[in-house]
Amino acid sequence: MFACRRHWFMVPKPIRYRIWATYRVGQCDDMNPSAAYCRAARDAVIAVATKEGREPDTALYDMFIAPRGETDTE
Q: Among 47, 43, 55, 51, which Cα is nearest to 19's?
């Protein structure tokens, strides 16, 4: 589960769809999520934090996203 019900429905639909589209079963267990999933999750965290007037904490997702210039290998 990405978020509790309240926060999940605060995420804009296009970002929710991106999370579902890029999620892979077991990615949390093997600590190998795709960069595309991490970008979607990062965008979700930012969207919710913005709606709540808080500073987003994206460090968890940032460490899995490839540096600029690299591409996904999905």
A: 43
DSSP letters for 15-71: HHHHHHHH--TTHHHHT---HHHHHHHHHHHHHHHHHHT-----HHHHTTSPPTT--
Instruction: Name, in order, each residue with C-beta under 8 angstroms of 74's C-beta and a sequence gap of 6 or more.
Output: 22, 34, 36
Identity of residue 69: G
**Average confidence (pLDDT) over 41-47:** 97
Give the chain's radius of gyration (CA, Å).
Answer: 12
Global pTM value: 0.83
